[in-house]
Write a structure and sequence with these properties.
By secondary structure, the chain is of the alpha/beta class. Bound molecules: thiamine diphosphate and magnesium ion. The site of magnesium ion has 6 residues, from helix 20.
């Protein structure tokens, strides 16, 4: 192998026979169909971005690595290919790390590729430019972490990263590329041969026939069965098989947030609007790509009622079984293979669940929907959440292929309940951690990866975490319509400083802020909506034009509640609040 110095001498005469680290990375990405990079340029990866763009890779430059990372993570969810995030050393790497940990927690395949400083100096802690032992720091936060030191190992390094990201339970992978690697020169033919095209990156994992039979036996014995669909089921892209299983079984289903639309929320078996009833009263629960974490109250306690319950769980990760409660019928394998095997095992004459159970669920659901309906039609000004969301609900009904991005507290919880989804993988949100900050990164990746219009429904606080990326949206002219539920703060804009000093309360923002003007600053369309009618017109115009748009929806500052629907998670002192 030649050194960088040799490259200069030989470049002119042997240009065609040589390649370098830069090009090997690009060729390895392209060979594996990874054609989009989300990142922020700087030393040592600026030229890599330029060259990647020159070679036909789409390189999307962000204003902050965290947003680029979130974009990469959701690109992974939407496509089943690892989303690529590219960052500079130390601070850029750290900014991307939150998204890497997020991808791992949410089981999204993503590769964070970060440039890093000189190993020799970093390891002796001699104070290099952006010095940091990035590999060590990334390791506990991702599924796998690799470093490539030699150009001839780039192909293998990327192959390992891809496999680790997408096989089994997907997750985030870190790939450390020290600055010196990029300039390393090697024979072009040897370089080509060193690249690896990953074959069958996420091999099918077929469930054991006994496990399938056991699950079906339990399901058959049920008087009040329930199917819960998680975002793992949405990720699997086994939409037809899942629909067949649900419909053939006749069992009510409850979609978790990002599984909404796998079957339409308006499907006769959907129990979304009867959530508390089905969780409490069901006797057999089949989880498909859903974990019994906090979002399902760990499968026990008040939410789940007193009646004994049996759980069937379908998951690709064997360690998921018995994580919180006993799983009487674990089915381990990829969702597509498991669901297909279950459908086959059901045969031609599966008995539907008892009619009184179906009736109970449907009645509860219809009652709740009817109770909600008038609230969604109110035309109050300032708007409340229901009036504003009623409008957005209709817009998604009329434009079911749009992608809905959603974050906030009240803005999240109420939108999740109110806006029906009709197609798989159209709702992307705060995920397992309930994090703020995914909004603009997700919107950008959703527009780029799906080519569909995006509607981002954002709390004013939530939006602030990634707000600067509206410039990115305008720069790439993406069909993104951001609606900010502006209630002057976090949960509510009405808190007061208990000490009476000049500072406002910690949850309160500038009153009457005009977020729409941020969009105008970059050439996008801004609109200030004070009534549901205005909101409707503005969103429809944005969706029709496909122009980057930001609508400041003025919401009554008193309309929200503490922490939205999860106020119960706030720690309470045994001492009375003063
Ligand atoms: C990264 C991160 N930081 C902080 C929080 C805590 N948090 C939860 S919701 C929220 C904002 C809620 O306000 P807003 O987005 O305006 O929604 P609203 O309830 O007002 O509609 C915050 C800061 C979080 N979830 N994630
Ligand atoms: Mg708010």
């Amino acid at each position: 192998m030649l050194t960088t110095a040799n490259k200069v001498e030989t470049a002119a005469s042997e240009e065609r026979e040589l390649t370098d680290g830069f090009h090997l990375i690009i060729d390895a990405l392209k060979l594996n169909g990874l054609d989009t990079i989300y990142g922020v340029p700087g030393i040592p990866i600026t030229d890599l971005g330029r060259m990647a763009q020159a070679e036909g890779i789409r390189v999307l430059s962000f204003r902050h690595e965290q947003n680029a990372g979130y974009a990469a993570s959701i690109a992974g969810f939407l496509t089943k290919k690892p989303g690529i995030c590219l960052t500079v050393s130390a601070p850029g790497f750290l900014n991307g790390l939150t998204a890497l940990a997020h991808a791992t927690t949410n089981c999204f395949p993503m590769i964070l590729i970060s440039g890093s400083s000189e190993r020799e100096i970093v390891d002796l802690q001699q104070g290099d430019y952006e010095e940091m032992d990035q590999l060590a720091i990334a390791k506990p936060l991702c599924k796998a972490a690799f470093r490539v030191l030699h150009a001839q190992d780039i192909g293998i390094g990327l192959a390992r990263a891809i496999r680790a990201a997408v096989s089994g339970r997907p997750g985030g992978v870190y790939l450390d590329l020290p600055a010196k690697l990029f300039g390393q020169v090697m024979d072009a033919e040897a370089g080509r041969k060193s690249l690896v095209k990953v074959i069958d990156a996420a091999p099918a994992q077929i469930p054991a026939p006994e496990a399938v039979k056991r699950a079906l036996d339990v399901l058959k014995s049920a008087k009040k069965p329930l199917i819960i669909l998680g975002k793992g089921a949405a990720y699997a892209q086994a939409d037809d098989a899942i629909r067949t299983l649900v419909e053939k079984s006749g069992i009510p289903f409850l979609p978790m947030s990002m599984a909404k639309g796998l079957l339409p929320d308006t499907h006769p078996q959907c129990a979304g609007a009867a959530r508390s009833t089905v969780l409490k009263d069901s006797d057999v629960v089949m989880l498909i790509g859903a974990r019994l974490n906090w979002l399902l109250s760990h499968g026990k306690g008040k939410t789940w009622g007193d009646a004994p319950k049996k759980f069937i769980q379908i998951d690709i990760e064997p360690k998921e079984m018995d994580s919180n409660v006993e799983i009487v019928a674990p089915v381990v394998g990829d969702i597509g293979s498991c669901v297909t095997a279950l459908v086959q095992g059901m045969g031609g004459n599966w008995t539907a669940p008892p009619a009184d159970w179906i009736k109970t669920v449907q009645t509860k659901r219809d009652d709740n929907v009817a109770k909600m309906a008038p609230r969604l039609m109110n035309n109050n000004s300032p708007m409340d959440y229901h009036g504003a969301l009623g409008v957005l609900r209709t817009i998604i009904k009329e434009r079911p292929d749009a992608v809905l991005v959603n974050e906030g507290a009240n803005t999240l919880d109420l939108a999740r309940g109110i806006i029906d989804m009709y197609q798989p993988r159209k709702r992307i949100d705060v995920g397992t951690w309930g994090i703020m900050g995914i909004g603009m990164g997700y919107s950008i990746a959703a527009a780029v990866e799906t080519g569909k219009p995006v509607l981002a429904v954002e709390g004013d606080s939530a939006f602030g975490f990634s707000g600067m990326e509206v410039e990115t949206i305008c720069r790439y002219k993406l069909p993104v319509c951001v609606v900010i539920f502006n209630n002057d703060g976090i949960y509510r804009g009405t808190d007061v400083n208990p000490a009476g000093g000049p500072d406002v309360a910690p949850t309160v923002f500038v009153k009457g802020a005009r977020y729409d003007r941020m969009m105008e600053a970059f050439g996008g369309v801004g609109f200030n909506a004070t009534t549901p009618d205005e909101l409707k017109r503005a969103v429809n115009a944005a969706m029709d034009s496909g122009k980057p748009t930001l609508i400041n929806a003025v919401i009554d500052p008193a309309a929200g509640s503490e922490s939205g629907r999860i106020g119960n998670l706030n720690p309470q002192s045994a001492l009375k609040k003063k």
